[in-house]
User: Which sequence fits this backbone?
């Protein structure tokens, strides 16, 4: 039977989601916990692959087992896992449900601290220069007019297409932070951090709106802005068709 596991993690201590030969990752820790408690080898497939240092307030992954799932499994997993990974729920799902390919929408947020703040240091980019947020939001509307985002993709990746449908993109100011929210059906590797870096150039008035659109049209990563630090990036929401979920089991 197939199950979805919903969880969150602080990515500071991890070299991203995906297993690596000589580095600790979220996937490795979660698989080890499930395998230990279920007493069989468990492999999980996540909705996405976050990079080193990126956080997730909501992530889903699927796994298969024919063993009965105890209603206490979430409690046992949270007792077993380190403090920077938290399991929220486990759902029985349709047999062919796929955590990655069946995701309809993913949402990320990026945080920029506008003042030096020690309690945001690990969870936001520190930038005290003034930003023209109104112009940055105009640039966000330009993103909605395009689907090919090769210019924001890490080079030499193994993707077959650079096409993404962006559903929303906007900046808002909250207390001592600027928060960028972006939703799409899929994201390219390093895409959000490259978009934010380029939008910051717009906000600093180093890049015009026409220049921003020309970067998209160029399809060249070298024309876009630098990638911002991973610490400020959070995967915040993943949406599926409700019919995928059969029942919450733990």
Assistant:
């Amino acid at each position: 039977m197939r199950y979805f596991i919903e969880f969150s993690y602080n990515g500071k201590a991890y070299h991203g989601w995906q297993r690596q030969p000589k580095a600790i990752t979220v996937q490795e820790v979660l698989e080890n916990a499930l395998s230990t408690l279920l007493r069989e080898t468990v492999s999980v497939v996540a909705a996405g692959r976050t990079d080193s240092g990126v956080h997730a307030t909501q992530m889903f992954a699927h796994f298969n087992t024919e063993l009965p799932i105890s209603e206490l499994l979430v409690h046992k997993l949270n007792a077993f896992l380190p403090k920077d990974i938290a399991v929220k729920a486990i759902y029985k799902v349709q047999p062919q449900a796929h955590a990655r390919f069946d995701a309809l929408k993913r949402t990320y947020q990026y945080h920029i601290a506008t003042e030096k703040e020690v309690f945001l240091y690990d969870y936001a980019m520190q930038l005290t220069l003034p930003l023209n947020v109104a112009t940055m939001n105009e640039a966000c509307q330009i993103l909605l007019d395009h689907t090919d985002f090769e210019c924001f993709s890490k080079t030499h990746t193994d993707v077959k297409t650079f096409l993404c449908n962006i559903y929303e993109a906007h900046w808002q100011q909250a207390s001592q932070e600027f928060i960028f929210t972006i939703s799409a059906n899929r994201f390219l590797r390093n895409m959000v951090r490259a978009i934010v870096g380029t939008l910051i150039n717009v906000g600093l008035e180093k890049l015009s709106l026409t220049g921003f659109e020309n970067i998209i049209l160029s399809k060249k990563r070298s024309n876009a802005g630098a990638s911002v630090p991973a610490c400020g990036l959070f995967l915040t929401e993943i949406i599926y068709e409700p019919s995928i979920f059969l029942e919450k089991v733990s």
Remarks:
- The domain at 2-101+241-248 is CATH 3.30.70.580 (Alpha-Beta Plaits).
